[in-house]
Amino acid sequence: MEYRKLPCGDEKISVIGLGSGSLPEDIEKSEEIISAAIDSGVNFFDMATAIKPPLYAFKKAFEGRRDKVLTQVHFGAVYGDGKYGWTQDLGKIKEQAAWNFETFGIDYTDFGFLHCIDTHEDLDRSLAPGGVWDYMKSLKAEGKIRHLGFSSHEPGIARRLIETGLVDLFMFSINPAYDYQKGGEHARGGVAERMELYRDCEKAGVGISVMKPFAGGQLLDGKTSIFGRALTHTQCIQYALDKPAVMTVLPGVRSLEDLQVALHYVSATPDERDYSVIGEFTPKSAEGVCVYCNHCQPCPAGLNVALINKYYDLAQAGDELAKGHYEKLDLHASDCLKCGHCESRCPFHVKQEARLEEIAAYFGR
User: Fold this and answer.
1) Could you give the CA distance from residue 264 to residue 244 in angstroms, rounded to a whole number?
2) First-to-last CA distance in the chain?
3) Can you spell out the DSSP letters for 158-171?
4) The pLDDT of residue 185
5) pLDDT of residue 291
6) 298: preceding bond cis by omega (within 30 degrees)
7) pLDDT at position 294, please?
8) Which of 52, 289, 294, 354 has the fewest CB atoms within 10 Å, counting from its CB?
9) Strand stretches in the chain, DSSP E
10) What angle do CA 294, 319, 99 make, to 5 degrees?
C-alpha cells in the first residue's frame, strides 16, 4: 500500500481508502470486507452508508486495531428508519453521533465531517451560532473529533469552509468526467474553477478525500461513459490521485471481489495506470448523453436539470445515496413545464423532456 501524509498532522493515509456507501446489508459480509481491507493496508474508512446494517460491522472489524485505522464520520447523515437520511436538525445529529461512537466502538473520530453541504443556504444554517459547526468544534475541543472537515460537490461551498481556517480535510467528487476540459462543465464548477480549488488546497495544506472516482460506475462501461469508451478502475484512481491535495480515493465496494479490483491499483504497472487516452476524447463522444454541463440554464421552471440527471444516473448505477440527494432538491423532474428550452440549448442534443419523464417515474415524484 502507498500512503500520503496529512499536511496538518502526523497521520499517514492509504491512497486507497474504503467508501462505505455500497457495503452489503449482510453485517458479516460487510465485516469481512472491512477486515480484508485493513489486512491489505487500507487505513482510511468513510463511515456514511446507504443503509444502517453495515454500520454495525465496523466495531468488530476495528477491534484490537483502532490504532491502525482512520475514521471519517459524517455529522448530518442519519439512519432513523434504517436507511440513509440527510438532516441539519442539531438534535438528530447529536443523537446519531452518540449512536455512532457507541456502535463503532470508538471514543473519537479522526475526521468529523459536516455532511453533504451543497447550497449556501445550508451552509449558512450550519455555520450559524449554536449550529452544527459550533457543535462539531466543541467535540474537537473535547478530543472527540481530531480533524474537522466536510463533504460537498460545490467548489464555492468548499472555498467558504476552507476560509474558516479550521478545515484539515474534505470530501469531493473527482473523476475525468467531472473535470474533462474539452467536454464542458461536469458536476459543479468548470474545469478551471475545480483545478484552481485543488491547487489552492495544496497551498493551504488542506487535504482531499475523493468520492465518486468512477462517476458512480458510469466511466467503467462504454455504454454509460460520457466519452463513449470505458476507463478502468486503475485509470480513474490514478487520475484522482494525480490531482493536487488529494490524499486518498474512496471507491465503494459491494464485495471482496470489488475490493480486490480496487486494490489492484497498488500493484498496477505504469501502463495500467496511464490514463492519457482521455486526451483522445471529444465532446462528440457524449452525443445524446447528459453530461451535466448546465448549458440548458436558466430553466424557466427553475429546475436544476444537470443535478436531476446526475442523481438519476448515479442511482441507476447503484448509488443508494443518490435518491436522498435527489429528494433534497427544491424542484424535481415532475415539475418540468415541457417548454422545450433545455432541448433547444443542449449542445449534445439530449431529449431532455422525455428523459425527465423517465426520471420522474423512476423516483416516484
Assistant:
1) 23
2) 45
3) HHHHHTTT-EEEEE
4) 38
5) 60
6) yes
7) 65
8) 354
9) 3-5, 12-14, 44-46, 70-75, 77-78, 85-86, 109-114, 145-151, 167-173, 207-211, 246-249
10) 120
CA distances from 334 to 89, 104, 215, 362 (A): 28, 40, 25, 11
Write out residues in the chain with pLDDT < 50, as ranges. 181-186, 282-283, 285-286
**Strand partners of residue 18:** 45
Helix (H, G, I), strand (E, B) or coil at 72: strand
CATH code for 3-279? Answer: 3.20.20.100
95: left (phi over 0), alpha (psi -120 to 50) or beta: alpha
Alpha carbon distance 96, 79 (integer Å): 8
pLDDT of residue 283: 45
Over the stretch 87-125, which tens digit does the pLDDT of each residue have? 999 999 999 999 999 999 999 999 999 999 988 999 999
Residue in this structure with the C-alpha cell 447528459, named with its chain if needed: 290
- Give residue-wise pLDDT tens across range 318-354: 777 888 889 989 999 999 999 998 888 776 678 999 9
Selection from 51, 49, 48 nearest residue 83 by Cα: 51
Place of cell 468520492: 211
Q: Are 132 and 76 in contact (CB under 8 A)?
A: yes
* Numbered ranges of CATH 3.20.20.100 in the chain: 3-279
Place of cell 440548458: 296
- Neighbour tally for 94: CB within 10 Å: 14
pTM of this structure: 0.76
- Residue 264: CB atoms within 10 A of its CB come to 15
